[in-house]
């Protein structure tokens, strides 16, 4: 399967641009012109609107897509509860919020036959999915394709951050592929199936219950910089005309529900709109930094932001630490010691991260909750304090952060995991006093 999927992934076409009113048809003439709901849709298709915002939200935030499909989504039997596996949802109450610094190794390998959905494992989160506030941090580890089943998340959008292995995402709006170094976003409610391009796959997911991710304002940076809108890629319409029974699994207010359709629900022949999946290559990120002195705050590395109801205070920011030059004069160049009112979950896609000498590994992650003291470990502090300050290219890794205004509460499985690093505090041991009055 993955050989065929790999070929498919290599030849995918995309539409470009973030937030566009895109349109696409897999069969010429499938997309109605001049109206959304003709009395009889073209080619005998059914018209269906999928809303990602309330009908009445300001135009800037309004999101919806019109789908023209072989069968309407409404034609299905009752959904019934299925096992939630290792998926958890806000409110997170299994443990108390922990002020300690926490760090995990990668997830253990999953049992054979674990697909993307079965391989999702929740680390923690905040907010309340029923209130559409907050977020969850999940990891996934999979070794099998999803077959004859699709997933959709009513609780939020899914920002998928592959760390190992490429993914072919077959969505209602078409196909996307995303591998390590890229991120993919599946909007709230959009059905999709994941096939593995390289056998095994591992990565991270930010489930955002709040306002959909948008590009951050650029302020004095100007009209260009950070992630460029034109580098975001949306799929072109591609449909499955299959009468095979397909299980549709829906995450709804924290629980998984399933119904078996008598056909593939990935049967959208044409669509137009703004509620669309997309993929973005993090290597295209235009990194802005200091060209004089001091280490800037990591908000300049924001790829996407989900604003909360308070201006400037994100429900969650997605931040990337991409290859860049460091040139600061008389500057401690790695991330500084800090205590942050925001809460920081960090993951590593490849290589190393400049604040940690070891222990922070690809597929692992760290959680530095609100106000917890963290920053360079002792080895990094010693090295960077003595380093010769010539221009230096940091290009040995790709790290990211989900930074949120609310503390992240770990799930019971994360707080008690064997792969939780028990001695993490020790990385800050041995920072001697050097004070001389
Ligand atoms: O804790 C971290 O490593 C993330 C981080 C990076 C940085 O460059 C400045 C502040 C910050 O929280
Ligand atoms: Fe930090």
From TrEMBL:
Residues 283-435 form the Homogentisate 1,2-dioxygenase C-terminal domain. Residues 13-282 form the Homogentisate 1,2-dioxygenase N-terminal domain. It catalyses: homogentisate + O2 = 4-maleylacetoacetate + H(+). Homogentisate binds at residue 374. The active site is at residue 295. GO terms for molecular function: homogentisate 1,2-dioxygenase activity. Its EC number is 1.13.11.5. Keywords: Dioxygenase, Iron, Metal-binding, Oxidoreductase, Phenylalanine catabolism, Tyrosine catabolism. InterPro entries: HgmA_C, HgmA_N, Homogentis_dOase, Homogentis_dOase_bac, RmlC-like_jellyroll, RmlC_Cupin_sf. Its cofactor is Fe cation. Involved in the catabolism of homogentisate (2,5-dihydroxyphenylacetate or 2,5-OH-PhAc), a central intermediate in the degradation of phenylalanine and tyrosine. Catalyzes the oxidative ring cleavage of the aromatic ring of homogentisate to yield maleylacetoacetate. Hexamer; dimer of trimers. Belongs to the homogentisate dioxygenase family. This is Homogentisate 1,2-dioxygenase. It comes from Streptomyces racemochromogenes.
């Amino acid at each position: 399967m993955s050989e065929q999927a790999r070929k498919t992934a290599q030849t995918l076409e995309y539409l470009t641009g973030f937030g566009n009113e895109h349109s696409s048809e897999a069969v010429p003439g499938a997309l109605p012109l001049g109206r959304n709901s003709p009395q009889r849709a073209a080619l005998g298709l059914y018209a269906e609107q999928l809303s990602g915002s309330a009908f009445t939200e300001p135009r800037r935030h309004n999101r919806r897509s019109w789908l023209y499909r072989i069968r309407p989504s409404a034609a299905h039997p009752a959904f019934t509860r299925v096992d939630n596996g290792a998926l958890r949802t806000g409110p997170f109450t299994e443990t108390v919020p922990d002020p300690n610094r926490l760090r995990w190794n990668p997830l253990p390998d999953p049992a054979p036959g674990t697909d993307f959905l079965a391989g999702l494992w929740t680390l923690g989160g905040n907010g309340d999915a029923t209130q559409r506030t907050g977020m969850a941090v999940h990891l996934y580890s999979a070794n099998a394709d999803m077959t004859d089943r699709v997933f959709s998340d009513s609780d939020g959008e899914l920002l998928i951050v592959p760390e190992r292995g490429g993914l072919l995402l077959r969505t209602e709006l078409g196909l996307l592929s995303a591998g390590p170094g890229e991120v993919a976003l599946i909007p709230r409610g959009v059905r999709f199936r994941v096939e593995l391009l390289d056998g095994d796959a591992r990565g991270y997911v930010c489930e955002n219950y709040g306002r959909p991710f948008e590009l951050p304002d650029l302020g004095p940076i100007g009209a260009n910089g950070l992630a460029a809108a034109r580098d975001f890629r949306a799929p072109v319409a591609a449909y499955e005309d299959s009468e095979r029974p397909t299980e549709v699994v829906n995450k709804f207010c924290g629980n998984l529900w399933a119904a078996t359709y008598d056909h593939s629900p990935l049967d959208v022949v044409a669509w137009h709109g703004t509620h669309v999946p997309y993929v973005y290559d993090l290597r295209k990120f235009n990194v802005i930094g200091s060209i004089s002195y001091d280490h800037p705050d990591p908000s300049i590395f924001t790829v996407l932001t989900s604003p909360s109801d308070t201006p400037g205070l994100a429900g969650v920011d997605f931040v990337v630490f991409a290859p860049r030059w460091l040139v600061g004069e008389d500057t401690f160049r790695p991330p500084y010691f800090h205590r942050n009112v925001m809460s920081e979950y960090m993951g590593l896609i490849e290589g190393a991260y400049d604040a940690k000498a070891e222990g922070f590994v690809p597929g692992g992650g760290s959680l530095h909750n609100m106000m917890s003291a963290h920053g360079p470990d002792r080895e990094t502090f010693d090295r960077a304090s003595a380093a010769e300050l010539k221009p230096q290219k940091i290009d040995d890794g790709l790290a990211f952060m989900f930074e949120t205004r609310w503390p992240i509460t770990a799930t019971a499985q994360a707080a008690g995991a064997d792969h939780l690093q028990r001695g993490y505090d020790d990385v800050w041991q041995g920072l001697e006093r050097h004070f001389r009055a």
